[in-house]
Amino acid sequence: MKKPSIFLSMLLASGITLAQSNNTSDVSQSGSNQDATVEQSGVNENTSEITQTNVGNEATVTQVSSSQYEDNTTFSSIAQTGRNNQATVDQNHDGDLEARAGSLEAYISQSGNNNEGIQRQGPNGQMGTSLAIINQSGNNNFASQDQIRYGNEAQVYQSGNNNEAIQAQDINMQPSDVGSMNNAAIYQSGNNNSALQIQDGWANGAVAIQGGSNNTSTQVQKAWVSTAEVNQSGNNNDASQDQSGSLNDASINQFGNSGTAEQVQTSGAGRTGASYDPLNLASIDQWGSDNVAYQEQDTPGGDIVLNHAIISQNGSNNMATQLQNGGSNYSNVMQHGSGHTASVTQSFIQP
């Protein structure tokens, strides 16, 4: 076990926390019943790195920054290998948020056995950004990331075993708060996948890519420059995207096996000025097996024409439904081979 200092080791062992102005903590543990807790706060940079190998693992990091400088980074890295892993990181800015700046960065890497995850970041001042990445491989995975304003980016990578991943951006804001530029991505490969991403903010982007095994993905967005995308390849797919707000855009691709996809979009004002185009637009592609698809659109938003939905299914029990409402609508359903059925309902509201 690497010991940065006898004093630090004593503090960690006794549960006493560290707080200083320009903090750096490096904890490396190897073998048996690890546990590590680091608490940092200060006006400059906070840095924490924890490495745990084999058996009890668990790490908790809490960092509070009072930085007023854009170049300052509050940084946490946790790497866990083998056995009962678990890691939790909390990062935020203290005091008058509008006077705070600098980035929050947190990384968790877990390999083997009972994994978990969970990182919480923000809120930031308007000059602040958040980046959170969790990488899990092997065994019971689970990950969760929660970010609040302003520039948020969250990524989860899971490979092998019981995966699940949940990401939430700008969900716990006060009614008067302005939301963020949010980007969330989940990549899952192999075994029992599942993914959920919820975003509320100003400009959102969400991607979930699942390759193989029992898939399932749900993405919910509430902001007006929305886009969402799901890409699943193989096995028991399912996917659902629910958008609301303004410009919306969504896409689901599922290639093979049990299919099912759903997209619901609504809208309201938007466009004029800088534009940002679509007011709704959706697409579903499924090849092979039990397909089913459903799309529902709405608007009116400003300067309408769009709506637009396209479903394309190729082979097996097909079925498709598209409902469109205000806007100039357009629909395209193509189904090849097997059970077919399609239903389209359109209506147009004169501006």
What does this structure look like?
The chain contains one helix and 26 strands. With 351 residues, it is mainly β. Mean pLDDT is 82; it is low at 1-20. It has a 13-stranded parallel β-sheet with strand order 1-3-5-7-9-11-13-15-17-19-21-23-25, with no helix packed on it. The chain has a 13-stranded parallel β-sheet with strand order 2-4-6-8-10-12-14-16-18-20-22-24-26, with no helix packed on it. The chain is flat and about 60 Å long. 3% of the residues lie in helices and 48% in strands.
What is this structure, in a nutshell?
The chain has 351 residues and is mainly beta. The protein has one helix spanning 6-14; strands at residues 23-30, 36-42, 46-55, 59-65, 73-83, 87-93, 101-111, 119-121, 127-137, 144-147, 151-159, 166-169, 181-189, 195-199, 203-211, 217-221, 228-233, 240-242, 250-255, 261-264, 282-287, 293-296, 309-314, 320-323, 331-336, 342-345. The chain has 1 helix and 26 strands.
